[in-house]
Amino acid sequence: MKPLTPSAVLADVIGNKEVPRTEIIKKIWDYIKKNKLQDQKNKRMINADAKLKALFAGKAQISMFDLAKIVGKNVS
Fold first, then answer.
1. Would 1 be classed as within a structural domain?
2. Where is coiled-coil annotated (predicted)?
């Protein structure tokens, strides 16, 4: 897969190195699990901390199915 450049907001979460989309998703999930941001009652929801809130366009919580759309908007 082609390496993609993360936006500044995404780079705060995964670093600013160019990586393929699959690796970007993996790094975001690593961050979510490390910081225990997956909702305990509904595992399909991701709770935002300060870094993710900026990435999630100010939303406090998103569905894991929205993650691909968010990544798409934050890479070039």
1. no
2. none
pLDDT digits (tens, 9 = 90+) for 6-53: 999 999 999 999 999 999 999 999 999 999 999 999 999 999 999 999
CA distance 42 to 27: 21
Domain count, the chain: 1
Within a domain: residue 12?
yes
Q: How would you class 14 by CB atoms within 10 Å of its CB: exposed for 0-12, middle for 13-18, buried for 19 or more?
A: buried
pTM of this structure: 0.91
Range of the domain at 25: 8-73
Task: Please tell me the distance from the alpha carbon of residue 61 to that of residue 16, in angstroms, as a whole number.
Answer: 24
DSSP 70: H
CATH for 47: 1.10.245.10
Beta carbons of 67 and 48 less than 8 angstroms apart:
no
